[in-house]
Every structure is written in structure tokens, then in C-alpha cells.
Amino acid sequence: MGRIARTVFSEPADIQRMERWVEELAINARVRVHVKEGSPVEGVVMVTPTIQVFKDADDIEGINGTVKLEDPQQPGWSGLVWLGDIVRVEQLDSVTMGATRA
């Protein structure tokens, strides 16, 4: 596997929350993602996020995932956000849930 995450989840409510983020983060959507710690991250969703199995630093297996955002106004910039860290997603354009999938 070789995939390490800072935090992994196994509770059904946490997994359902991440599944909701996958649905809300449609490819090509411009979004502002609010996270538990730190400032919101804004950009265009480049790849449809997926939920995957990871291990944490204590070798505990669980679920998490990432979403990659890019900003066309800042060439070369990209941000990777863990789905488990998201608390809210703001849609900033007309691309909506399920409208365009890759």
C-alpha cells in the first residue's frame, strides 16, 4: 500500500462526510474549501477526489482521501487538501455536484 495519512477514519459518520465532499467537489468546479485548521483554500478541482485506504503514523488502517486544487490566476500553484480535514465546501461558480465527472 505505502500510503500514509496524518489522520485516518473508520467511523461510518466520518466516511459518509467524506463521501459527501466527493460529491460536492465536481471536476472543474471553482471552490473554497474550509478546513479544521488553517485558512480556507480556493481553486479549481483538477481531479475527482476518491476515498482510499491509508495507514497513519501508528500503522492504523483507515479511510481518507485528497482533492487537488489549482488556481488559473497563479500558474504553477496547486494545493492538496485531505478530505478528512474539510468542514465546508463553498461553490464559487456554476459547476455543480455531478455535473462533470472524470
Furnish the topology, listing elements before pairings:
Layout: H1 12-24, E1 30-35, E2 41-45, E3 50-55, E4 61-70, E5 78-82, E6 86-91
Structure description:
The chain is mostly beta strands. It has one helix at residues 12-24; strands spanning 30-35, 41-45, 50-55, 61-70, 78-82, 86-91. Strands 1, 2, 3, 4, 5 and 6 form a six-stranded antiparallel sheet that branches. Strand 4 (61-70) and strand 5 form a beta hairpin. The radius of gyration is 14 Å and the shape is globular. Residues 98-102 have low confidence and may be disordered.
Query: What is the rounded Rg?
Result: 14 Å
- Structural class category: mainly beta
Percent strand equals 35-45%
Average predicted local confidence, pLDDT = 90
Low-confidence stretches are 98-102
**Number of helices, counting only DSSP H or I runs of 4 residues or more:** 1
Count the strands?
A: 6
Q: Shape, please? A: globular
Q: SSE string, helix = H, strand = E? A: HEEEEEE
C-alpha end-to-end distance: 24 Å
State the helicity in percent bands: 10-25%
Biggest beta sheet summary: 6 strands, antiparallel
